[in-house]
Design goal:
The complex is a heterodimer. Helix content of chain A is 32%, strand content 23%. Chain A is an alpha+beta fold. The chains are: A alpha+beta, B mainly alpha.
Chain lengths: 531, 341
């Protein structure tokens, strides 16, 4: 009896030593990408569509507009936020009165099922985005795209957007992942009376005309894309097939890419990225994320941080250099002002704070806290690899000026809710905006409209006016002045102490080229090649 | 005799119903007691408070707790376990698609553990204090004291990363093989049925490391229990009588002692199987294994109620069925049990 059992054991162990079966398909035309977790929907307009859905949508669907490209200082290719280019639209023309824009669509464009793309599809898709509520509607609104009446299919290949008001974000907002062009004939076939926008069907199926079509999708496991050979909105993609596998363990994603079993791998802690980059065996593209900021926030409404002197004391106490070193391992960028290094208006000379404990202590005394006080420092455990070292160093530095902060680690599922209550006294958080304008960032994080991301409940009428003025300003000189003015206020009132800029890191085999950074932080398969 | 067996099975199933109902209520309440806010989580990083509220209404989370419970039970009665927000799919479909992966892995882990632990237990019982007894003690101590994710990562590091013997830890099959036609859901069985040797080997290679990880963890209780039970039986009167009657040592050991010692071991196997299903959660995460454990874990992190409830419910039902199977197995090993049950 024990002999048979031992035999089973031996067989199992021997299996390890068996030769690997030959790969079934040609690997050279397939790209294997590893991610931590995958999309939960194929529909970017769907309720709760996650971060990876943006990437799926980006490759499966076309938008009217896209961006040009540029090369960054480190040689990485990047989209160019300043240049808009046609994608599904062949050309566009803003009306003389500046109150509408007319798009000419490509006449030869087809959806994946062969149906011709018409202006009616564009109209249906945009109507859907502004009607279904939630995130897509909110994002459209950021570009002053709010009502179905704004969208008109003039003829089969002419589409017009009527403006509610002039807004410089309207056109850039048509190049973000949300305003995808959906095959309305196909989608309508799968719509029901209760579900006129085919939300149920499009969640698991695609009805796009993008450079890739969906071959298969196993939620939580893998997504497989095949190239759409009839794609007309850009140069034909080089890679025929892309397999995106979900590997939850970062250690394994690293092992797989280092051993050459995967072509591209993402979602790494900064330490892994730094080590992989140093080893030189892989191409590691690290790009500081545009218009994004990791900051130490303070509640500007409740004592003790309601007192601006207390906030300034904290800003003088926090050792930014040390935090950047310990948390980012040289990735991303150190930030001293709330405008990212690669966002227009970045000017570190506007930062009045140097790490100066004596000055911090004096400010605390002036504020009426000569002996400091006790508080809690909260952060999201989901980002612990970066936030925890930052929090510990901040805690240490604050203790030196008498502020005793207890660390409060909040699980990811709870974080958002905790933030929304706006009663955390002191916290580490980040925010990033898709549209690369400083006033766009400020509108969400400093404006008195008090959005969820104004996590400090900061209120300042002067600030609000300046943000709105910058949004409307067309004169570059005046615009720059206005941006400087609101940055100065943000530094003086300092509801957030800027710490650093997060990094988007992608590890690739040397043979993989053509990677391009995008503001939405997703992989664009269309530009990639593999030897 | 067959009728009495059937009656026992039915009675046991009926007795399990209140337990399952309790599980339904408790998981529902426990999930709601979690501090997370799924609406806020799924509204995404750029949502306004209004968007969060809209999602809350869509998810039915604006209703009162009793109302939510009634909706949940009504759906459950129709076999609807709700929808996962993390994968966007119906929970029932997710669980059905993923359960075979977990069961295959658990079964292999258990089989491996038994095939090592039983001989080890028997050998150390027949030779207490010998080197094999010490080896067994060392192995089992190591097995339980090493955290399971650590064993997993260590095995991946040594056998995949350093030596390159094991295939990439990419789940049940490498990215370039396609799964066999589904019959049982087990890739090993299905590829064998299809007569596809390549896929069988590929699936077996993928299984090897997770099986080892899980098996090492389960070694300890089985080996220890076998040893203790064997020691007890070997010193009992009937073994002494058998030996005195001049029966061969092998007959005494296997026919008389082992069969009697197996009863507690089989009880234990049932328990080990259920806790292996639990331990799976971690192993699945390490090996990107698309099973129910990693599914539930991801859902838990996201405060995604429906999959967690579905997972617990399925596990509870499995547990009930497993215990039943063990009881039936008793009857085969020991005829006396059947009548008393």
């Amino acid at each position: 009896m024990s002999a048979t059992f031992s035999a089973v054991a031996i067989v199992l162990t021997l299996l390890l030593a068996l030769p690997a079966p030959a790969p079934a398909q040609s690997r050279s035309e397939t790209l294997l990408v590893l991610v931590e977790s995958g999309p939960n929907s194929m529909d970017i307009h769907g309720v709760g569509a996650n971060f990876r859905t943006y990437g799926a949508s980006w490759n499966l669907y076309d938008r009217l507009l896209t961006h040009g490209t540029k090369t960054l200082a480190d040689g990485t290719r990047s989209y160019d936020h300043a240049v808009l280019k046609p994608e599904l639209a062949e050309s566009w023309q803003v009306a003389a009165d500046g109150m509408s824009v007319t798009f000419k669509l490509r006449r030869d464009a087809r959806f994946h099922d062969g149906t011709a793309v018409t202006a009616r599809d564009v109209k249906w898709s945009f109507d859907r985005a502004v009607s279904v509520g939630g995130f897509p509607t909110f994002q459209m609104k950021a570009g002053a795209l709010e009502k179905p009446e704004q969208f008109a299919a003039v003829d089969d290949h002419t589409f017009r957007v009527n403006f509610l008001r002039k807004d410089k974000w309207t056109l850039p907002d048509l190049a973000v992942p949300v305003p995808v062009i959906i095959n309305s004939t196909l989608a309508r076939k799968n719509a029901t009376e209760k579900d006129p926008w085919a939300m149920e069907w499009l969640k698991n199926n695609e009805a796009g005309g993008g450079a890739y079509r969906l071959e298969s999708w196993k939620p939580g496991q893998e997504t497989v894309y095949t190239r759409f050979d009839e794609w007309k909105s850009g140069p034909l993609a080089k890679i025929r097939r892309v397999i995106v596998r979900e590997v939850p363990s970062a250690g394994n994603r690293r092992a797989l890419i280092e051993r050459g079993d995967a072509d591209v791998s993402v979602d790494f802690p900064p330490k892994d990225v730094a080590e992989m980059a140093r080893s030189g065996k892989l191409t590691v593209a690290s790009t500081p994320v545009e218009n994004a900021l990791i900051y130490l926030g303070m509640n500007a409404k409740n004592p003790p941080f309601a007192n601006v002197k207390v906030r300034q004391a904290v800003a003088h106490a926090v050792p930014r250099d040390k935090i950047f070193e310990a948390a980012m391992f040289g990735r991303g960028a150190l930030l001293t002002v709330p405008i990212a290094t690669n966002t227009p208006g970045y000017d570190p000379s506007l930062n009045p704070y140097r790490t100066d404990p004596a000055r911090a202590r004096a400010l605390l005394a002036e504020a009426g806290y000569p002996n400091g006080f006790e508080t809690t420092l909260s952060f999201d455990l989901g980002n612990a690899t970066i936030y925890e070292p930052a929090a510990v160093l901040a805690q240490e530095a604050l203790a030196a000026i008498g502020i005793k902060a207890t660390l409060n680690k909040i699980p990811p599922a709870t974080w958002r809710g905790a933030l929304a209550k706006k009663d955390l006294p002191l916290f580490i958080n980040q925010f990033g905006g898709w549209l690369n304008y400083p006033e766009y960032f400020f509108l969400w994080t400093y404006h008195g409209q008090n959005s969820l991301f104004n996590t400090s409940s900061y209120q300042n009428g002067e600030m609000d006016k300046l943000i709105e003025a910058a949004h409307q300003e067309s004169d570059p000189q005046k615009y720059a002045e206005t941006v400087r003015a609101f940055t100065r206020i943000a530094m003086a009132d300092v509801p957030k102490v800027p710490l650093m800029q997060p990094s988007l890191d992608v590890a690739m085999q040397k043979g993989v080229t053509g990677y391009q950074y995008w503001f939405h932080r997703q992989l664009d398969f269309r530009t990639l090649t593999k030897q | 005799m067959r009728a009495s067996l059937l009656r026992m099975v039915l009675r046991r199933l009926a007795a399990a119903l209140p337990g399952i109902a309790g599980v339904v209520v408790v998981t529902f309440l426990l999930n709601r007691a979690l501090p997370g806010d799924p609406a806020a989580f799924f509204a995404g990083p750029a949502a306004t408070q209004q968007a969060v509220e809209e999602i809350r209404v869509k998810l039915g989370l604006d209703k009162s707790l009793p109302e939510q419970f009634i909706v949940y039970v009504r759906d459950l009665a129709r076999g609807d376990l709700g929808r996962s927000l993390t994968t966007g799919q119906p929970v029932r479909a997710d669980l059905l698609a993923r359960l075979p992966a977990s069961l295959e892995l658990t079964a292999c882990g258990l089989l491996f553990a038994v095939s090592v632990a039983l001989p080890l237990g028997i050998l150390s019982a027949t030779r207490p204090g010998s080197w094999i007894d010490h080896l067994s003690r060392m192995l089992t101590t190591a097995g339980v004291s090493l955290p399971i994710f650590f064993t997993g990562l260590l095995l991946v590091y040594v056998f995949y990363y350093q030596l390159g013997w094991a295939p990439p830890p990419l789940g049940r099959l490498d990215a370039f093989s396609s799964p066999p036609r589904t019959v049982t859901g087990s890739f090993l069985v299905d590829s064998a049925l299809a007569g596809d040797g390549t896929i069988f080997v590929a699936a077996a290679r993928q299984l090897a490391l997770p099986t080892l990880t899980l098996g090492v963890f389960a070694l300890a209780p089985i080996a220890r229990m076998t040893r203790a039970a064997m020691l007890g039986v070997l010193s009992s009167d009937f073994v002494r009588t058998a030996r005195a009657s001049g029966l061969s040592p092998a007959t005494v050991l296997y026919t008389y002692a082992l069969r009697n010692a197996l009863l507690p071991v089989v009880t234990l196997l049932g328990m080990v199987f259920s806790f292996l299903l639990g331990a799976n959660v971690v192993v699945e995460k390490v090996f990107a294994w698309p099973g129910v454990g990693s599914y539930a874990l991801e859902a838990l992190i996201a405060s995604d109620y429906a999959p967690v409830q579905g997972f617990v419910l399925v596990m509870a039902s499995l547990y009930v069925l497993l215990n039943l199977a063990i009881d039936v197995l008793y009857g085969i090993i020991d005829v006396r049990v059947r009548i008393e049950a």
